[in-house]
Amino acid sequence: MKISDFQTKDVINIVDGKKLGVVSDLELDLKQGRIDAIIVPTQGKFFGMFGSSTDVIIPWKNIVKIGADVVLVKLDESRSFRAVEEGDTAYEYNKQYR
Question: What pTM was estimated for this model as a whole?
Fold first, then answer.
């Protein structure tokens, strides 16, 4: 599977059935040669111009199934996002996976 194939798939949370967005990028572990997480931008902008946009980093272990059109993930409803770095717009879900 190519990265470009991932970027056309919708990401759906199986816990609440909500569409989280589409995969924008992957987080790779080059030393071990594996994918650590997928990155999904949140929808915070109005016509792509106004508002803020953040990224949600979903650990690979939270991916339930990769289908032809969607990626199913399991994220608890009580999500606790936190900034990866001070002033950064990327947020990570459950940092404990590392």
Answer: 0.68
